[in-house]
Specification:
Distance between the termini: 35 Å
Structural class: alpha+beta
Largest sheet: 6 strands, antiparallel
Order of helices and strands: HEHHEHHHEHEEEHHEEHHHHHHH
Radius of gyration: 21 Å
Number of strands: 8
Shape: globular
Helix content: 40-55%
Bound molecules: iron/sulfur cluster
């Protein structure tokens, strides 16, 4: 007899899988809520018509050293989204294998019909509705009180699993930011953005009342470190075929093609100065990669002990 499908148990198994692979946070977004908020043509059902659950996973950022490095270095090594994508791919396969329901890794790519900065789906919205991040003063970058700033990936599936609710409390602004705002009229992210693209106000009760983000200025600032557009510009500006050939095949540019061919990230960048000074990103308990490592090992050990307890067998060696 086939065992009845237990959606809560299935969700636990998915959380255990993602945690073991390195995810810090896991949430399931309500599809109807996402459909209401997402712009026309960019809802989950536009991509997978019979989607029942939108799963969002979050992974932590780079090392402490990355935050202490110079701007150019941080721009290249500050993000870890490829780890999130790898876990999400694996999760989609796991769902199809274990539960026989269709699943896709949600492409994090831009919509080819809508220009260079419009994503096919908003991974940020998925994470927000799934309750693993809240919009911050820093251009809506999602923050989490325990994990700080994370990188996200999504999986869509036709399997129905219990949805989570958005976070009840937004950790931004941090109390120290409210203090600074009262003194100077600026929060750290506003004050240290090199191109002044963040502005806003904080209400008397210490909440974000208004936020403005100049996405164009941010993109222009960040694009100076983006390698592909620069190579394309060199190619277009080339005066003759030899110069054009150099732009494509020069030794320094070959690294980019290599990265593309192996699917390595860090081809596009952010300048991250707003997050370098954000107290949530820098001091959240699990934002520290070393503490995070300890916490992750603890979580895996607990999940293992629970699984052994459910099977009613003696636990194996601790991890
Ligand atoms: S990434 Fe850089 S340019 Fe963009 S908002 Fe943050 S500090 Fe400003
Ligand atoms: S520095 Fe961080 S916590 Fe403070 S207002 Fe900006 S985004 Fe929010």
């Amino acid at each position: 007899m086939t065992e009845a499908f237990d959606s809560t148990r299935a969700k636990q198994a998915m959380i255990a899988y993602c945690t073991k692979k390195g995810a810090l946070a896991f949430g399931v977004g309500d599809v109807d809520a996402l459909e209401k908020i997402a712009p026309k043509g960019h809802g989950p059902r536009d991509m997978l018509p019979r989607v029942k659950s939108v799963i969002s996973i979050g992974v932590g950022g780079g090392t402490k050293g990355a935050w202490a490095a110079d701007a150019k270095t941080l721009a290249y090594i500050g993000d870890t989204e490829t780890t999130a994508y790898r876990i999400a791919y694996g999760l989609a396969f796991l769902i199809e294998r274990e539960y026989g329901a269709r699943a896709i890794f949600c492409p994090p790519d831009m919509d080819p019909e809508k220009g260079a900065r419009t994503p096919m789906q908003s991974l940020k919205l998925h994470a927000e509705i799934a309750g693993i991040g809240a919009r911050s003063m820093a251009g809506d970058i999602l923050l989490h009180p325990e994990f700080g700033m994370m990188f996200y990936a999504s999986v869509f599936t036709e399997l129905e699993i219990p949805a989570d609710a958005p976070m009840e409390i937004n950790p931004c602004p941090h109390p120290s930011c409210v203090k600074l705002y009262k003194k100077s009229g600026k929060t750290p992210c506003m004050q240290f953005c090199p191109v002044d693209c963040i502005s806003g106000t904080i209400s008397e009760d210490g909440k974000v009342a208004e936020m403005h983000y100049d996405a164009h200025a941010c993109a222009t600032m960040s694009q100076q470190y983006e390698a592909i557009p620069n190579i394309l510009l060199d190619m277009m500006d080339a005066k003759d075929p030899i110069e054009r050939g150099m732009a494509v095949h020069s030794p320094e540019n070959q690294l980019i093609w290599y990265k593309l061919s192996i699917g390595a990230g860090e081809l596009l960048s952010l300048c991250y100065e707003c997050m370098r000074v954000c107290p949530i990103t820098q001091t959240a308990l699990m934002a520290d990669p070393v503490a995070r490592g300890r916490g992750m090992r603890q979580k895996v050990a607990e999940a293992k002990a629970q699984a052994y307890a459910e099977l009613d067998v003696e636990a194996g060696p601790s991890v």
